[in-house]
TrEMBL record:
Its cofactor is FMN; [4Fe-4S] cluster. This is NADH-quinone oxidoreductase subunit F. NDH-1 shuttles electrons from NADH, via FMN and iron-sulfur (Fe-S) centers, to quinones in the respiratory chain. Keywords: 4Fe-4S, Flavoprotein, FMN, Iron, Iron-sulfur, Metal-binding, NAD, Oxidoreductase, Quinone, Translocase. The gene is nuoF. Its EC number is 7.1.1.-. PANTHER family: NADH DEHYDROGENASE [UBIQUINONE] FLAVOPROTEIN 1, MITOCHONDRIAL, NADH-UBIQUINONE OXIDOREDUCTASE FLAVOPROTEIN 1 NDUFV1. It holds the Pfam family NADH_4Fe-4S. InterPro entries: ComplexI_51kDa_subunit, NADH-UbQ_OxRdtase_51kDa_CS, NADH-UbQ_OxRdtase_suF, Nuo51_FMN-bd, Nuo51_FMN-bd_sf, Nuop51_4Fe4S-bd, Nuop51_4Fe4S-bd_sf, Soluble_ligand-bd. SUPFAM superfamilies: Nqo1 FMN-binding domain-like (SSF142019), Nqo1 middle domain-like (SSF142984), Nqo1C-terminal domain-like (SSF140490). It catalyses: a quinone + NADH + 5 H(+)(in) = a quinol + NAD(+) + 4 H(+)(out). Belongs to the complex I 51 kDa subunit family.
Length: 458
């Protein structure tokens, strides 16, 4: 038996023309992850650490905000909202304390970029936080970290201690007049606390549930004061922009999605890991760099931004992985968690497991999400086990439609996305589960999907 082309496309264009695959990468945040003790202040300073902060402190806060805004940096947490614009929303001269909160509650299935970044290079985040606090005139910042990652928590505490000892935190930072306290807070393992307002409630000691907006956090956030909530990678990208210049940053990526970012490649691939590259690289190029799918197998479906984004197929290998490109393909760039699944994976089983996660992690505050995710799980389990009816497919679509855009926060939208997209691309596989009374990819049954995509030699 010989397999069809490894990635599933009909053509294999050269990666970047004559450019070698390695030159497509842009190691900035990950430039020295493999150095001995990369997480220490000494290593960070040896790699131009805290130079961006010194340049930022020489600017007026409003000019600093404008500079970050002009760089085109967009939030790396999923939504892609311009970072400088978020800072600009903080009202000035209101007489209230201002807060910066960094969302490090990375908990979505398949998403793993902020945790490795904090483990290997925590000072990039701390430097970015000092810059951001100076810009928004804040004297107290918080890092809300996923509580299960105890080794990261320890390294982060040590990095904060080093920063205090070196004068980058505390009273009169580098003689600038800025006083800044930084608090590291470990969460208790709730996915819903990745939603920014649920995170704020949790940080205040309440049950983590999304808040009604308006008012937005920029007006009434932590302790009812103006608050900026940013993703780890968003803030950690700021020092390099200040140090090397906004034009350098804009020279990478695309016009509307400039700069570098971390792509998390996982699943049935030969070389899983973090790949830092300019926005706009394609999955085909990343697979070429990483050794492709595991030997003898081909890509079936993948997520561009974690399990909460609509799945894509082998037809989308050449979609630019920036905000506009992925949106044009009918999905979202999200957290850039590229989970790749080969032809041995049952789509129904994968979607069922994701939906079980969302049903378990729903905070229960709103009816569409609380009830909808429960019933999606019941239907999907029946279909996966071969007990489903054809009418269940329309019922799945209908329930997902009643969740999407109607729940209190984006968790409901994330739960609906795999349902819609899997029915769009793999409805035949759902039908085979129903007509065949079980999974067609079960070794005891015929592998219907694979039969259509495998060339059998004599």
């Amino acid at each position: 038996m010989t397999m069809a082309p490894e990635y599933g496309g009909t053509s294999r264009p050269e990666v970047g023309g004559t450019t070698s695959p390695e030159k497509l990468l842009a190691p900035v945040l990950s430039a020295f992850w493999d150095d001995p003790k990369s997480w220490t202040l000494e290593t960070y300073e040896r790699h131009e650490g805290y130079r961006g902060l010194r340049k930022a402190l020489a600017m007026a806060p409003d000019d600093l905000i404008a500079y970050v805004k002009d760089s085109g940096l967009r939030g790396r947490g999923g939504a892609g909202f311009p970072t400088g614009m978020k800072w600009q929303f903080i009202p000035q001269g209101d007489g209230k304390p201002h807060y910066l909160v960094v969302n490090a509650d990375e908990s979505e299935p398949g998403t793993c970029k902020d945790i490795p970044l904090l483990f290997a290079n925590p000072h990039s985040l701390i430097e970015g936080m000092v810059i951001a606090c100076y810009a928004i005139r804040s004297n107290h910042a918080f890092i809300y970290l996923r509580g299960e990652v105890v080794p990261v928590l320890r390294r982060l505490h040590e990095a904060v201690r080093e920063a205090y000892a070196a004068g980058y935190l505390g009273k009169n930072v580098l003689g600038s007049g800025l006083d800044l306290e930084l608090t590291v807070h470990a969460g208790a393992g709730a996915y819903i606390c990745g939603e920014e307002t649920a995170l704020l409630d949790s940080l205040e000691g309440r049950r983590g549930q999304p808040r009604l907006r308006p008012p937005f956090p920029a007006v009434a956030g932590l302790y009812a004061c103006p608050t900026v909530v940013n993703n780890v990678e968003s803030i950690a990208s700021v020092p390099a922009i200040l140090n090397r210049g906004k034009d350098w940053f804009k020279s990478m990526g695309s016009e509307k999605s400039p700069g570098f970012t971390l792509y998390s490649l996982s699943g049935h691939v030969s070389g899983p890991g973090q790949y830092e590259a300019p926005l706009g690289i394609t999955l085909r190029q990343l697979l070429d760099m990483s050794g492709g799918m595991r030997p003898g197998h081909r890509l079936k479906f993948w997520t561009p931004g974690g399990s909460s984004t609509p799945i894509l197929t082998d037809e989308h290998l050449d979609v630019p992985l920036d905000y506009e490109g992925v949106a044009g393909a009918g999905s979202m760039l999200g957290t850039k968690a590229l989970q790749c699944f080969d032809e041995t994976t049952c789509v129904v089983r994968a979607v069922t497991r994701w939906t079980e996660f969302y049903a378990h992690e729903s905070c229960g505050k709103c009816t569409p999400c609380r009830e909808g995710t429960y019933w999606l799980v019941q239907l999907l389990r029946d279909i996966e086990a071969g007990r489903g009816l054809m009418s269940d497919l329309d019922k799945l679509n209908d329930i997902a439609d009643n969740i999407n855009g109607k729940s209190f926060c984006a968790l409901g939208d994330g739960a609906a996305s795999p349902i819609f997209s899997s029915l769009q691309y793999f409805r035949d596989e759902y039908e085979q589960h129903i007509t065949g009374r079980g999974c067609p990819l079960d070794p005891a049954k015929t592998t219907a999907w694979a039969d259509k995509h495998v060339e059998v030699s004599a």
